């Protein structure tokens, strides 16, 4: 009887290992696609840039809650740009929401050569911005959120001035509103029912 018990103990591990071995090898016989035939991930056509990430504390009855706010801009540097704000309890979620919101707010900016077609100004909150066309090679003469929005839009030469509050959210949105107002001569002529030469 003792010999039989020893044989049973010796054979137990081998029988228990068979299901694991079968479970690990159940996909081994499945044909695999060649690497060339596998679908490739499409590269994102937009460039992303986070302008600001700050923490916000809110006092409630149970104490203080901490959340984050991200100001993000996306664009293709060819005239398309979008600005968005994301809020969440985690930094990663706030940044992702900001980029999603920016893509929803995408606009097309008219660019003449490497600069803007005409002088423009706009206001948002306590921030006011003014932009003027610049000669090729002058670069983007602006700072903070305005510079990020202009560069992502694809404007390479422009002179800018910020008045009032230097809050990045307000200055970024003021810049975005200014870009919305830009028009080329053909657009103004079509709006007035005239030709481009008459404008």
Short description:
With 199 residues, this protein is of the alpha+beta class. 35% of the residues lie in helices and 30% in strands. The strands form two sheets. The chain has a four-stranded antiparallel beta sheet with strand order 1-2-3-4. A four-stranded mixed beta sheet has the order 5-6-8-7.
What report would you give on this structure?
- 35% of the residues lie in helices and 30% in strands.
- The strands form two sheets. The chain has a four-stranded antiparallel beta sheet with strand order 1-2-3-4.
- The longest helix has 23 residues, at 2-24.
- The chain is α+β, with helices and mostly antiparallel strands and 199 residues long.
Order of helices and strands: HEEEHEEEEHEHH
What about the largest sheet?
Answer: 4 strands, antiparallel
- What do the pLDDT scores average to? 82
Summed up, the helix count is: 5
Judged by helices, strands and strand pairing, the structural class is: alpha+beta
Q: Any idea what the shape is?
A: globular
